[in-house]
Design a protein that fits this description.
With about 150 residues, the protein is mostly helical. It has helices at about 5-15, 40-50, 60-65, 75-90, 105-115, 120-125, 140-145.
């Protein structure tokens, strides 16, 4: 089991005002702590400045959702509806979700231990799969085509 170092605990308590109970290796910074979007940029900049870590292949877009402008909300909703109708109802496939890889405190600690951010190694600690496999359920369009 990976143990969070005292220096990382102090960093999290000072920057994010966390309690000792919230600091667990499986704690995710976006989902559990609410650090997402532009907050992730500030948090990770502070993290890389505090600890002697080579940035390596760290890419913020991989780990944080994009904060879009208010004017783009209506087109995004229409696009999501269109994508749902086409993929889910007509083709029986789940709509492709643009998900981000979660960053856990175990990943932050491992990067400190390694001295470099290595996506493949660190994401294996998260134990998640970015793109889940499609469901086996077929939609009504596929059922109609198979009857003919």
């Amino acid at each position: 089991m990976l143990i969070i170092s005292e220096k990382l605990k102090e960093f999290l308590i000072d920057t994010e005002k966390l309690s000792e109970e919230e600091i667990q290796p499986s704690t995710r910074i976006a989902e559990d702590l609410g650090i997402d979007g532009i907050d992730t940029l500030y948090f990770m900049d502070s993290y890389f400045e505090t600890f002697p870590i080579d940035v390596g292949d760290f890419d913020l877009r991989r780990y944080s959702s994009d904060e879009t402008q208010v004017l783009l909300i209506i087109p995004m909703i229409l696009f999501a509806l269109f994508r749902f109708l086409i993929w889910q109802l007509l083709m029986g496939k789940p709509a492709i979700k643009l998900t981000t890889e979660p960053v856990t405190l175990a990943m932050l600690q491992q990067a400190i231990d390694d001295g470099v951010w290595n996506c493949a190694r660190l994401e294996s600690l998260a134990g998640t799969q970015v793109y889940p496999p499609p469901s086996k359920k077929s939609g009504w369009f596929a059922r109609i085509r198979s009857k003919t």
